[in-house]
Specification:
- The structure is a single chain.
- The chain has about 220 residues and is α/β, with parallel strands linked by helices.
- It has eight helices and seven strands; from the N terminus they run αββαβαβαβαβαβαα.
- It has a seven-stranded mixed sheet with strand order 1-7-6-2-5-3-4, sandwiched between helices.
- Strand 3, helix 3 and strand 4 form a beta-alpha-beta unit.
- Helix 1 packs across helix 2, helix 4 crosses helix 5 and helix 7 runs antiparallel to helix 8.
- The protein starts with a helix and ends in a 9-residue tail after the last helix.
Amino acid sequence: MIKSFPLVRAGSYLSIRWLVKKINDRDRLPRRGAVIIAPNHSSLIDGVMITALVNMTRLSPCHTVVQEESFREDFFGYILRCGKCIPVNRQNKESIARMFGLALAYLQKGERVMIFPEGHLNNGVNLRLPRPGAALLALESGAPVLPVGLRGTRDIYAPGQKFNFRARAEINYGKLIDTSAMSRLYHTAEKEERKELVAELSLMIMEQIAELSGVKLHRRMG
């Protein structure tokens, strides 16, 4: 499977790229080194789209955190496995811990991890409240975070709807968030201070995502 990855990577890129009409500020994605990619999540195609595009435009793989059940799908599952994506069952504490350990290991090797801060699909109008995963990974590892705004992906493939081959998406890369100073504070902080740092970084990430995606912040974050 590892040997087949370049071919699968190219094939998945070609099958996805024509659905994207525009990619803005792609140079903001570092060519090398650990980075956490944090997009909004409005469509069932978001994870595959970002994974395929990032894998083809930069030199190291993008390890995307994906719900376990997606790995059981024939086409998408094969791409996810070949791309060394990270499965997670958010209802299972052991699965979450395993996901977190794998993601940190990849970041420590200088590779990229993509995780949806919202955890689940939003309604296309308002972002969900962020789960702590993206901020925790950044604070534990010291890796920078790159917020990404996806527009139009819900028109391509919305929950309960057929795939719309005529719709096109736009991808907007945000400004890289340097978390190194916050990470140092996090590792010396007490429990309550750590919670505040996670909340602070989560807000920084979600504010950029809202601006980039055109989807409003959750009312409790506005």
